[in-house]
Amino acid sequence: MSLARDVAGIRFANPILLAAGTAGYGREVAGVIALRRLGGLVTKAVSLERRAGSRAPRVAEFHGGMLNAVGLANPGVAHVRAHDLPWLRTAEPALPVLVNVVGFTTAEYAEVITQLDDREGHAGYELNLSCPNTNAGGVEFGADAATVTDVVARCRRATRRPLFAKLSPALPVIAVIARAARDAGADGITLVNTMPGLAYHGSQTRLGNGFGGVSGPALLPVGLLAVSRTAEALPGMPIIGTGGVSTAEHARDYFRAGATLVAIGTAALADPRLPERIITALERTDG
Ligand SMILES: Cc1cc2nc3c(=O)[nH]c(=O)nc-3n(C[C@H](O)[C@H](O)[C@H](O)COP(=O)(O)O)c2cc1C
Description:
By secondary structure, this protein is of the alpha/beta class. It has one domain: Aldolase class I (TIM Barrel), CATH 3.20.20. It has eight helices and 16 strands. It has helices at residues 77-91, 106-116, 145-158, 174-183, 220-233, 248-257, 266-270, 274-284, and strands at residues 5-7, 10-12, 16-18, 40-42, 59-62, 65-68, 97-101, 124-128, 163-167, 188-191, 195-197, 200-201, 204-205, 212-215, 239-242, 261-264. An eight-stranded parallel beta barrel has the order 3-4-7-8-9-10-15-16, surrounded by six helices. Strands 5-6-14-11 form a four-stranded antiparallel beta sheet, with no helix packed on it. Strand 5 and strand 6 form a beta hairpin. It is globular. The structure holds flavin mononucleotide. Residues 19-22, 44-45, 66, 68, 70, 72, 100, 128, 166, 193-194, 215-216, 219, 242-245, 264-267 line the site of flavin mononucleotide (FMN).
């Protein structure tokens, strides 16, 4: 049986994607991952301006996963438009690519999309709604249904390509925010982003930024619950399940919970061939 999935008008040859921020813009991992074997790739964040990102160290391992504060480092939309997306289009013309979009005001998200949308080479966008909203004292966009409605509606007007809204696992009622995203025009929901966390080494925080985001094994049950609750609340809404996947059985757990696709992040950083092995395992058992 084929593992192919048609989701929000995009044809994925299989349901396994690389998660945002862990595969750069494809080129960074092309030497170690067979990109054409993947179902799809979500790019690293793209913001309007270039961002240098957080102070080093940016990642720390702990028992149960990883803590990162990359600070959304990226070359900015003009560079991604001129260099990164054209590279991906030439290297992997058939690979579905979702561009992960960030902003610090509601208008910025739509502006990034506007600057990319006349380009070919990407299938859609994933809106990282865990960014701090500078006009709301740094509260993340995704924390408030009215703000989510505003961001998604503006992005909807900026493109006809599919939009996925990516949410934090730290929201009190994720399904309510997911519904606001859907009603404003999102075609799918990505669950979950990293969970805020802190780690010390003696009296020093282990990350240059102080706090960061927890990813990896500790996030698996958290992500499964977020997906399950959202799938129950929004039947038929495509969901990309993300968080803690390192085996084919974990991917199946996400499908059981209601995910349509699964994205792998941290586990692929440590072992770049892992997504391929998971795809092969799913093919052997028909999913
Ligand atoms: C180093 C690193 C960078 C990340 N960068 C982004 C990003 O740019 N945009 C985003 O939406 N999520 C980003 N994430 C979150 C991942 O896409 C994913 O949601 C999260 O890590 C959970 O999946 P995992 O446990 O498989 O890593 C990043 C995660 C890591 C570890």
